[in-house]
Structures are given as C-alpha cells and as structure tokens.
Design goal:
By secondary structure, the chain is an alpha+beta fold. It folds into two domains: 304 residues, 3-Layer(aba) Sandwich (Aminopeptidase), CATH 3.40.630; 123 residues, Alpha-Beta Plaits (2-Layer Sandwich), CATH 3.30.70.360. It has 14 helices and 20 strands. The strands form six sheets. The protein has a six-stranded mixed beta sheet with strand order 1-4-8-5-9-19, sandwiched between helices. Strands 13-15-11-16 form a four-stranded antiparallel beta sheet. Strand 6 and strand 7 form a beta hairpin. Helix 1 crosses helix 4 and helix 2 crosses helix 4. The chain is globular, with a radius of gyration of 23 Å. 46% of the residues are buried. Keywords: Hydrolase, Manganese, Metal-binding, Metalloprotease, Protease. Belongs to the peptidase M20A family.
C-alpha cells in the first residue's frame, strides 16, 4: 500500500514546493522579541494545515519569558493526533517551526524569507527550508496523501511541534513530563526529522546527539565608552580583558583548555571506532559544506569523532563591541563574549557549568584587572544516545530496523548509523520520560546550511524524504 503513497507524493511536487514557500514566508524567528508574533502566526498556520488533513490539533500555552528586557508569551506547542486504534503501534513525531534569524545583509543571495527554487540545481533556498519546516511539511504531506487516496494510516500518529527549539525549547520539557500519562500515554516509539545526512549522497539514521551549554562573559569597566586618544593606556580596557579570557578557552586546534571537561568523556572502544571506520564519508564532504579547506585534521575518523563523540568549544561573538564598517576609536565600557560547549553522553551539565565558571574566574584574577567580570549561562541542553555500544552493521530495535528498511526501499541503499554533532534539547526528555525508543530520520543533506546564509533543501531530498517518512510508517506497522 505504501507504493500508492510514494507515487502520490511524486505526482504532487509542485503543490509541496508551493506550500513550503508559504511556510518559509512566515519569519518565525523565536530569539527576537520583535519577531515573536510571527512564531504565533506560524503555529496558527500549521494547526490549520494539519486540521485540514484530519488531525486533531490543540495549541498548548507554555507561559512567558524575559527576552531583550521584555516579558512576552512563549509560542504554543502544537499537540496533534490522528488515529487511536489499539491494534496499531503509536508513533510520536517531533519537529519545530521556529527558525534562526536571517537578513539579506548577512550575505544571503536572495531574501531569506522568500523561497527561491533554483531549477538548474534543484535547490530550494529559504530560512527554515531544511531546519525544520521542510521535514514538518513532509509529515503533513504523508497525512494528506492518505486522506486524498482514501487510505487509513498504518499506525496511530501523534505529534509535538514547538516554536522555541532555536531558543532552548523553553517550557517544552515541563509539558512533556506533565503529559506523560495524558496526551503522550501509549507512545511506542519516537521519530524526529530535524537533522541531516553525514554527507551529500548517502542517507543515514542517527542514534545520538551532542548537548549544548551556552555561556556569557560580561566585562565592565568605565561608566561610559571612552576615546582611545584620551584614555588609551590609562584604564584597563574591557575588550582587552575579554579577548584575553576567551583566548584561553580553546586552542586553534580545537583542544578545550578548561580542566574538568574532557575528563568526563567515556573511553573509546574498538567496536565503537569501527562504526566510524565504515561510514561513507570523506573530507570533501566537510569542505563542500564549509566552502573551504580548513579542517583541523586530514584523518576521516578523527574528524567524525570530533563532530560526534567528543565535546567542542566554539566562540560566537562579542556584544557591545564596534562592529560596523569603517574606523571608530572607541573604548567600549562593557562587552559580552558568547561561547558554547557541545557536550557528549556521560558529561554532566552542572559539572560543565561549574568547571567553566571556576576556570573563567580564576583566569580573570590572573589578569590583575580593575574591571569586573560577570558569568552567566543558559540552561544546558543535554546530550542523548540511544545505545553507545551499537554495532556498525545493525541496530536491533524494531523502530530502527523499520527505518533501515524504509531507507533501503526509497534510496536503494542501507543507511549509515551516525551520531550528530548538533543538539535537539527535547530528545533526551522524550527517551527518559516516555521510556521508549527514539531515532532521528533526517531529510536534508550535510551542505544544507542550516543556521547559515543561503539555507536550502534539495528538491530531491524534500520529495524522497517525504516518501521515506511515509514508508517508515508502513515498515513500523509490519515490524
């Protein structure tokens, strides 16, 4: 029966592209208070679209938050369901409808919130096209295909879609825990499509994610910005102190210098190393994704493990510094440096925070500066792994085997089993709270540029990825 669904999806490509254009056209940036109303708009749009195809959808408020000096409402989570047959398995799918900020002036070749279909390359450019509006619409199109063909779903389907994933999933964990014995009761397994292939040609299934801890270091000194011609060499400068501290966090080779971080990582086993050896991957995949040849190592396995199983520390920006074109000889009175640590399984979020705080404060004392430093952090998104001791050849849980078989049917190849370098904070909550198996079934490719300029999804991935989601449900039913 899934063959009919696959054919129906193939025949409706234009409609699906047009719908993606509608979704991309809503600038649902969650991290900017001035855009928050668009996240609500996106929630309304999705709720309406899923209701049309037969899902029962409720919008659940998640409370308020402080952002940019304002107290504003969090966007609602969408809880949806279609089917309640006790003879069928129940699959929970998750996605998010908020996006990262984007301006054409950031370096986009086109307006980021207007979908551009480059027919020569088959690419669909627009913010949210691959992260995560395209995959959410994949589930919508699977439901729509069943309705239009008059077919029953092979499983019961529940979904949780949120509008704050790009901003820490505020409020969602509490909702999931509170609905354990309510809306989420009876879930047999979870499927998330919010990540990417390891490369650009071979699909994968993902069984682990790194977590993320985000930090802010604010160095304050003078009461106001100063003229460097008058005060340069006279006062301790906040920018100088901040750069000194941030330069002591990580080396250019990626080595984290903070004691107590790397010590938390589990030792590598021979069986686990073999998983990385057999992955279909080359350094050219990274070079293609970055548009450069700047990898720290030329060794494939080292690069894969650096991305998947080891922590990393990245410097992200300095708030309060002069960043416009041209020269300005100002000494900033206060600057805030931002950085994050990607955590891996076996690492403890609180231990990471404590280690960073102790190290930063100790290094600042060594400067002998009369400025002050303030340390802040966001709540860490924790890492997740379904099974760290998995074989390179198989994963025995029926949920994973269903995903393997579905991928083979749609793409004609058995996918790689990977861990992902990025973070989806709610994944571990689903696994622990619902006590069920979780997998990630990606739609997009490694070069999609999520969070970057010119984010895209290839039309072939958008369509075949939708076919994959539908086929997966049939494989689950027969597992």
């Amino acid at each position: 029966m899934s063959d009919k669904i696959v054919a129906h999806i193939e025949a409706n490509q234009k409609k699906y592209v047009d719908r993606l254009a509608e979704a991309v056209g809503i600038p649902s940036v969650s991290g900017d208070a001035s855009y928050r109303h668009h996240v609500f708009e996106m929630a309304d749009w999705l709720a309406n679209e899923f209701t049309k195809v037969g899902a029962q959808v409720t919008k659940r408020p998640l409370g308020k938050q402080e952002i940019q000096g304002e107290t504003i409402d969090l966007p609602p989570a969408l809880l949806g369901q279609i089917g309640n047959d006790p003879a069928k398995k129940t699959i929970l799918v998750y996605g998010h409808f908020d996006v990262q900020p984007a301006l054409k002036s950031d370096g986009w070749d086109s307006e980021p919130f207007k979908l551009v279909h480059d027919e020569a390359t088959g690419r669909l450019y627009g913010r949210g096209s691959t992260d995560d509006k395209g995959p959410i619409l994949g589930w919508l199109h699977v439901l729509e295909a069943h309705k239009e063909l008059g077919l029953d779903l092979p499983v019961n389907l529940k979904f949780v879609f949120e509008g704050m994933e790009e901003s820490g999933s505020e409020g969602l964990e509490e909702l999931v825990v509170s609905e354990k014995n309510g809306f989420l009761a009876g879930v047999d397994a979870v499927c998330i499509s919010d990540n990417y292939w390891l490369g650009t040609t071979k699909p994968c299934i993902t069984h682990g994610l790194r977590g993320c801890a985000y930090f802010y270091l604010t160095v304050s000194g003078p009461a106001r910005d100063l003229h460097s011609g008058v005060f340069g060499g006279v006062v301790h400068e906040p920018m100088t102190d901040l750069i000194s501290i941030m330069s002591r966090l990580v080396t250019p080779e990626g080595k984290i210098l903070i004691p107590g971080i790397n010590e938390q990582v589990a030792p590598l086993t021979d069986a686990e190393r073999e998983v990385y050896n057999v992955m279909d991957f080359s350094l050219e995949d990274i070079n293609s994704a970055t548009g450069s040849k700047t990898t720290i190592s030329d060794d494939k396995v080292s690069m894969l493990m650096s991305r998947m199983r080891y922590p990393s520390l990245s410097l992200h920006g300095i708030e309060g510094a002069f960043a416009e074109p041209g020269a300005k000889t100002v000494i900033p009175a206060k600057v805030t440096g931002k950085f994050s640590i990607r955590m891996v399984p076996d690492m403890d979020g609180q231990k990471v925070i404590d280690a960073v705080k102790a190290y930063v404060e100790d290094e600042f004392k060594k400067l002998g500066s009369r400025n002050t430093i303030e340390f802040k952090h966001d709540s860490p998104g924790l890492p997740w792994v379904a099974d760290p001791n998995v074989s390179a050849q198989a994963y025995q849980h029926w949920n994973y085997e269903a995903a393997f078989r579905a991928t083979e049917k749609v793409y004609g190849v058995r996918p790689d089993l990977t861990r992902e370098g990025g973070s989806i904070p709610i994944t571990l909550t689903f696994a622990d709270t619902l006590n069920c198996n979780v997998l990630l079934l990606p739609m997009g490719r490694s070069d999609d540029g999520a969070h970057s300029t010119n984010e895209k999804i290839d039309l072939s991935n958008y369509i075949k990825g939708t076919q994959l989601l539908g086929t997966y449900l049939y494989e689950v039913a027969s597992a």
